[in-house]
Design brief:
InterPro entries: DUF202, IM_YidH-like. The protein is an all-alpha fold. α3 packs antiparallel against α4 and α4 runs antiparallel to α5. The longest helix is centred in the middle third of the chain and has 38 residues. The protein is elongated, with a radius of gyration of 21 Å.
Length: about 120
């Protein structure tokens, strides 16, 4: 009787518990990354506002672009991480998991674009 109760309580999720926990850790790492990206945008915008008022309009424009782009990329990172988490959750249970190359490549390109805009900004100030 006790064995029957144990078997009924087992779920597909518990069969792959290590994979689900790793998926959750990965999701949380993406969330931390998104928060850091957003924070960098705010940091640049705030530092720019506190600098000398003699800065050019181009640097003002770039500081605003960096802030807006960082927030946008941070939000996109959260959305993409959530979608990837839910897809991996289902794929783990269905045993059809494949590495999400497109998500990693897309987010990598976003970060490269922000870094490029940073480079331009720091050259101009």
């Amino acid at each position: 009787m006790e064995k029957d109760l144990e078997q009924k309580q087992k779920t597909i999720d518990s069969k792959y518990i290590q994979q689900h926990l790793a998926n959750e850790r990965t999701f949380l790492a993406w969330i931390r990354t998104a928060i850091a990206i957003i924070g960098v945008g705010f940091l640049v915008s705030n530092l720019h506002e506190n600098m000398e008022p003699n800065l050019s309009q181009t640097s003002d424009y770039l500081a605003n672009i960096i802030g807006i782009t960082s927030v946008g990329v941070g939000i996109m990172t959260i959305i993409m991480a959530t979608i990837a988490y839910l897809r991996k959750y289902k794929a783990i249970n269905d045993q059809t998991f494949r590495t999400p190359k497109i998500t990693v490549i897309t987010l990598g390109i976003f970060v490269i674009v922000i870094a490029f805009i940073f480079g331009i900004y720091f050259v101009l100030i």
